[in-house]
Amino acid sequence: MPESPTSPPTSPLPGSPTNNATPPSPVSALLRATVLFAAFLALQLVLFKSLLTFPSSRFLPAPRRSNSTWANGAVDDAEECKAGLIYVYDLPPEFNHDLVAHCDRLWPWYSFCPYLSNGGLGRPAAEVPALSAVVPNASMPNWYNTDQFPLEVIVHRRLLSHRCRTIDASLATAFYVPFYAGLDVGSHLWGPNSTVADRDRAGARLLRWLRGQPFFAKSGGWDHFITLGRITWDFRRYGADGWGTNLVLMPGMENVTRLVIEGDRLDPLDVGVPYPTGFHPRRAADVRAWQEHVLSLDRRNLFGFAGAPRSGFPDDFRDVLLEECEDAGSDRCRAVDCRGTRCNDDGAAVMRLFMGSRFCLQPRGDSFTRRSLFDCMVAGAVPVLFWRRTAYDAYRWFLPRGEEGEWSVFIDRRALRVGNVSVRDVLEGYSERRVRRMRERVVEMIPRLVYGSSPDGLGDGMDDALDVALGGVLKRFRHRRWSIGHEAERPPGRLVAGAPPRRGSSKTTTPPTSNGRNGSVIGQRASRHRSTAASSAYIKTVLSEAPASRSKSLQQS
C-alpha cells in the first residue's frame, strides 16, 4: 500500500496478516449510506408518532385560514358572528401548556395524561373495551373516556378554532383567559407537602400578568371570562389554611365571568355549565342518531343509582338511597357501587345502568352537584332530585326553569329519610305515558348538555353546551357595554327605559324551552307548544362591579 508523504513508514506487526484488502467500491458505500439514511428516517417516524400520542403540544395551532381579522378565516355568513367576536389570550405556557406537559404530576393516585389526550376528551371509546361494549357502533366515534375535570382544556381547544375568534383584540366583544386553574390547584390539593402558597402562586402570577394587558386594564375585566374545571369552592378558600386556592377572591377577579361546573348561586359572576360527559358528537346528525338510540332502548329497571356509601359522612343520604333500592328489589332497582375508581375508569358501568333505567337517583355529591346528573340525562333517563341546587338552581342557562316537572322528579329528602314516602311508590305513581313524555323531554335537551368535538360546532342550527355558554357570555357583555354608555349619558336620578336589570333585582326571566328548532329528533316528532324566546333572554346581567359573594357556607337547600 503506498504511503503518504507525510505519514510515518508502517510495517505489519509480527504475526499479523499482511493487509491486502482493497478499498470499498462506490456502489457498496452508496448502499451503506442508503441503509443508514433509511434507519434514520424510521427512527424519526417512531419519535413523531410517540409525540402524537402525548396529550398536548403548544396551544396555538396554525389557523386553518387567516387574514388580519379572523384567526380561522373570514366567516361566510356575517350573521354567524353577529353576537360578537372572541379574543383568546396567548398566555405564558406555565398557565396551560406546561400543566398538560407534566400531566403525570397532576394527580397523586394515577396519571392524568390519558384523560388529557384528544384535546381533553380522553381516549376514544373504541380503545376502551368496556365502554365500546355499551356504545353502538354507529355512535362509537362520538364517545370518549372523558374525566369530569378537563373542561378548561376542552373549551380552550374549541375556542382556538372557533369561527368567531379574532386576532384583532380591538374588535373583540369578549376576551377569553385560558388559564387551567383547575388542573393547577388539583395538583396541590392532596400533596403531603403542598402549602397555601403553592395553591395560590399560579393564580397570583396570572392576575399580575393580566393586569398588564391593555384591554383588561381598560375594562377592569368585565368583558373577560375564564373556565374553571373544578367546583367553585375549590377556588374560594376562606381562612388562612382552608381548602383550595382563593383565586376567585383575589384582586382582579371581581368582574371576570367564570364558566364553572358548579358555581355559587349567590354570585352572578359564577355561571354553572355542564360537567363534561363521554359523549362528544361531531355534528347534529350524530346527536339525532344517539337520541333515537336511547329512546328505543328497553328499560327494564324502574330506577337506578350509581354511588358508594361514605363511612366518613354520618347519616349519609346515599345510605338511604341504597336502602330504597334494596327494598324495591332487583326487578325494579339496580345500583352500581362506585367505591374506588370503578365508575371513573371507563364510565361503562354507569352508562349501562342509566341506559337500562327509566329514572336515576341523583343526590348531591361531595358538593351540591355531580357529573352523574349529566350522564343520566345523556343516557335518556329521568333524573330524580333531592336538592334544588343539584340542578334547578345550578344550571340556569341550560335547564328550563318553571318546567322542572316535565323532565325531572323532585322528592323531599326529609320525608324520605323519616319514611313518610318511598322512591318506589313515588315513581310507580307515574303512568307509562307520562314517563315516556318525560324521557322525550330529557332526550330533547341532550344537545345543550354536551360538548361537541368539531371546531365548527354541531351545525344545522343545533347548539351544544359551549354554544349556549358563549351566547350567554356575549349577551352579558353587550348588556354591560350598553349600560355603561347609557349610565354615562342619563341625568342623575333618572332611570333608562329598557335597561337590563341590576344585580340583586327581583325581576327574573325564565329560560326558553326547546320547540325542536334546536334540531332535536323529539322536536321533529312532537308538536307541543314551547316558548321560542332566544336563549339570551334569560341570562342574568351583571351591572355592579362589587366583588363576588364571600359567603362562607354552603347553604343546605
UniProtKB/TrEMBL annotation:
Keywords: Glycosyltransferase, Golgi apparatus, Signal-anchor, Transferase, Transmembrane
Origin: domain of life: Eukaryota
GO biological process, one term: xyloglucan biosynthetic process
Single GO term (MF): galactosyltransferase activity
Residues annotated as transmembrane: none
GO terms under cellular component: Golgi membrane
Biased composition (Polar residues): 506-518
Keyword Transmembrane attributed: yes
Glycosyltransferase as UniProt keyword: yes
InterPro entries: Exostosin, Exostosin_GT47
Exostosin GT47 domain mapped to chain residues: 81-416
Membrane-topology annotation of the record: Single-pass type II membrane protein
Protein location: Golgi apparatus membrane
Positions of region (Disordered): 1-24, 488-534
Name of the protein in question: Exostosin GT47 domain-containing protein
